[in-house]
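Hi F.,

I've been meaning to write this up properly since the lab meeting, where we talked about keeping a consistent format for the predictions we share between groups. The idea is simple: the sequence comes first, exactly as it goes in, then the structure tokens exactly as they come out, then a line or two of notes. No screenshots and no reformatting. I'm using this chain as the first example so we have something concrete to point to.
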Amino acid sequence: MSFQSLIETIFNQTGKTPEEIAKLATEKGLFEPDVKPGAVVNWLKQEFTLGQGHSMALFGLFKSMGLVKASEIKPKPQKQKYISRKSQ
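Output, unedited:
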């Protein structure tokens, strides 16, 4: 499925353009720096009954629109690998 067809499906399902949804999310405070991406995705799923893929596509679009800054998305810390002393 192309990105454009994802956006068209979202419009058909919600009756709203991505810009209208972004405005609602902004009004809800979902683009504040302390809000995690999962909160935005969960809101999209609950508010508009979108699936995970459509919600993530919208989140990616919001990010590309500059509504979500990449620096606000922190990668998960990597776990330390255990090194056995016997193997040294």
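Notes:
The helical segments are 3-14, 18-27, 37-48, 52-64.
Residues 35 and 77 are 18 Å apart (CA to CA).

If this format works for you, I'll send the rest the same way.

G.
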